[in-house]
């Protein structure tokens, strides 16, 4: 196959033979038998040209190497460990080639997406701060230890109607306050305090 890939065009048995004979002595029938076996296995296709055949590789050398690697990797009982071991065997040049190949497969670099603010696990609803970044600021009120929600603190405040429901939220629990009128209709009051 190396010789067929090297020529990168359909070749005859005679051309491969002459190329191989530069390195060692080999018989015409040996080359013919090997090319015929490669054809029967589906590695090369052949086309008749007069009384001889021209042989051409079905896939590139790179595709063949990729198929071998994929086959070996898929037979591993621990593919991740096999990849780690494989990468450990690579030279610096091979690692650079791998990085270049990954860039080709992934396409052009796209900007990293903006990080998404993690959900507030304390059950506090954040309000718009008019462009002020509050993600890194400590918004805990020193008097209560609870998060500042941007709502006025009505706990303990003197109000005309005293209808403000107490803030019963725990720092780690979601807001579970319900309308008092739903739970206890007798405690419902009109807005004017009646």
Average of per-residue pLDDT values: 74
Question: What percentage of amino acids are in beta strands?
Answer: 5-15%
Along the chain, the helix and strand elements come as HEHHEEHHHH
> How many strand elements?
3
In order across it, which strands form the biggest sheet? Answer: 1-3-2
- Poorly predicted regions are 133-142, 144-148, 157-194
Rg, rounded, reads: 38 Å
Largest sheet: 3 strands, antiparallel
Q: Which structural class should the secondary elements be placed in?
A: mainly alpha
State the helical fraction: 25-40%
Secondary structure tally, helices: 7
Measure the end-to-end span: 96 Å
Shape: elongated
Outline the structure in words.
With 194 residues, the protein is mainly alpha-helical. The chain is built from seven helices and three strands; from the N terminus they run αβααββαααα. Strands 1-3-2 form a three-stranded antiparallel β-sheet. Strand 2 and strand 3 (52-57) form a beta hairpin. The longest helix has 15 residues, at 92-106. The radius of gyration is 38 Å and the shape is elongated.
């Amino acid at each position: 196959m190396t010789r067929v890939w090297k020529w990168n065009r359909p070749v005859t048995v005679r051309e491969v033979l002459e190329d191989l004979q530069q390195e060692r002595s080999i018989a015409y029938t040996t080359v013919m038998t090997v090319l015929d076996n490669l054809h029967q296995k589906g590695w090369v296709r052949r086309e008749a040209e007069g009384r001889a055949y021209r042989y051409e590789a079905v896939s590139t050398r790179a595709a063949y190497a990729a198929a071998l690697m994929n086959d070996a990797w898929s037979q591993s009982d621990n593919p991740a460990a096999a990849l780690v071991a494989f990468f450990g065997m690579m030279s610096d040049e091979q690692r650079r080639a791998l990085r270049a190949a990954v860039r080709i497969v992934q396409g052009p670099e796209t900007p990293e997406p903006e990080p998404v603010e993690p959900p507030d696990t304390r059950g506090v609803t954040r309000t718009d701060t008019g462009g002020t970044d509050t993600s890194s600021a400590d918004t805990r009120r020193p008097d209560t230890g609870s998060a500042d929600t941007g709502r006025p603190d009505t706990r303990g405040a003197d109000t005309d109607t005293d209808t403000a429901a107490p803030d019963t939220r725990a720092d780690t629990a979601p807001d579970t306050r319900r309308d008092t009128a739903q739970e206890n209709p007798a405690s419902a009051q009109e807005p004017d305090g009646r």
